[in-house]
Amino acid sequence: MPLTKEQIAQRIAKELRDGFYVNLGIGIPTLVANYIPAGIKVVLQSENGLLGIGPFPEEGKEDPDLINAGKQTITTIPGSAFFDSAMSFGMIRAGKVDLTVLGAMEVSEKGDIANWKIPGKMVKGMGGAMDLVASAKNIIVAMVHTNPKGESKLLSYCTLPLTGVRCVKKIVTDLAVLDVTENGFKLLERAPGISIDEIKTKTEGKLIVPGEIPEMSF
Amino acid sequence: MNKVVANADEAIRDISDGNVIMLGGFGLCGIPENCIAALVRKGVKDLTCISNNAGVDDFGIGLMLQKRQVKKMISSYVGENAEFERQLLSGELQVELIPQGTLATRCLAAGYGMPAVYTPAGAGTEVAEGKEMRSFSGKEYLLEYAFEAHYAIVKAWKGDTEGNLIYKETARNFNPLMAMAGRVTIAEVEHLVDAGGLDPDCIHTPGIYVHRIFQGVNYEKRIEQRTVRKT
């Protein structure tokens, strides 16, 4: 069975380490916050100017001055800090953020990522994604393995306008966990019941299968 | 020296057609609602607006787009505005999309008196096309220029008659950066107090950067994505 969005987030959460400062993108990445392993402390950064994102507010306690980068109402937690947008991207650029998790429309076997524009169709903009991928120490992409047409999103070369080059380190899809290496996508784990052949078929870029590949367990 | 003006209409009185204006805010959070309404009333047009977002269809900069007052938007993300997308695809509106950190830093550079900065954001992408590149320690950087804007319009939580400003929570965002970057900076505040009414240790924007200030009225503070805890 392919992973659900929640399971993709749950698997990515296993990559979190105690003391990490983490920026979570919009969509599946945001769900990672729900699965932070017990016993470790992670501080979430919101690029509109907050360290220490708390849970969504209780009904009636929404504060229009307190939102996340997805414009959702949020709360602070003890130890939170506010800052302006230049300092926010300053800490990102300076490599203070340990891990960035974001979605993608395409990833290449070299670690290039495209997630901001479909020429002639979608013109929403890159927001903070280009700054994040240009500077983050570690970037994990959370996405489904194929697009709605069934075409692979793990490619030899990205066909859409790039967000960043040679920056993605790891990819967690609904079918597999893969590292981006010098030699291509290296398969590390597969979703329960998903065969290596299926992953091979649905990965257009170069796939390395180093022997037996364990199934993920939840 | 009197920086205090009566209202938004007086604050924006000399903004004219073709001006470049910065507008603070992230989404609808921390936007100068009073001045946007005054700009719509004044009907000034052919504006170039530098703002992280373009509002929504019926609020924020979206109100100016409806009246066709904007010639060009310089933003990082414009995904919440159908009218914006329509004007863009039809060619009525020019848009320059730039990385959010680059947008913030180009404001910062202007306010710090630095003509340009190097940033890695966009290296190897179409954002880098035609830009001067330089390699530092083996990594590629783009030379990005400080913004030049006739006016910066910002929204703060509290301000005093000297123009000192304090922002609230994530409504800070681009406001202090744009406040530093305008040739003329206009601040609208929720609470205007006399000099001495704010703790000097807590000022986010020193008054030297602010030319006009007024007490705003009737803040709607619309929430774009109201999200609450599941119980």
The largest sheet of chain A, given as strand count, sense and whether it forms a barrel, is: 10 strands, mixed
Classify the beta-strand content of chain B into a percent band. Answer: 25-35%
CATH superfamily (homologous) name of chain B: Glutaconate Coenzyme A-transferase
Task: Give the assembly state of these chains.
Answer: heterodimer
Largest sheet descriptor of chain B: 8 strands, mixed
End-to-end separation of chain B in angstroms reads 54 Å
Task: Report low-confidence residues of chain B grouped into runs of 5 or more.
Answer: none
How is the CATH topology of chain B named?
A: Glutaconate Coenzyme A-transferase
Question: Would you identify the regions of chain A where 5 or more consecutive residues have pLDDT less than 50?
Answer: none
**The top level CATH class name of chain A:** Alpha Beta
Describe this structure in words.
- The complex is a heterodimer of chains A (218) and B (231).
- Chain A is of the alpha/beta class and 218 residues long.
- Chain A has a single domain, classed as Glutaconate Coenzyme A-transferase.
- Chain A is 16% helix and 24% strand.
- The longest helix of chain A has 9 residues.
- Chain A is globular, with a radius of gyration of 17 Å.
- Chain B has a single domain, classed as Glutaconate Coenzyme A-transferase (3-Layer(aba) Sandwich), CATH 3.40.1080.10.
- In chain B, the strands form two sheets. In chain B, strands 1, 2, 3, 4, 8, 9, 10 and 11 form an eight-stranded mixed sheet that branches.
- In chain B, strand 3, helix 4 and strand 4 form a beta-alpha-beta unit.
- In chain B, helix 5 crosses helix 6.
- The model of chain B has no long low-confidence stretch (mean pLDDT 96).
- At the A-B interface, helix 3 and helix 4 of A face helix 4, helix 5 and helix 6 of B.
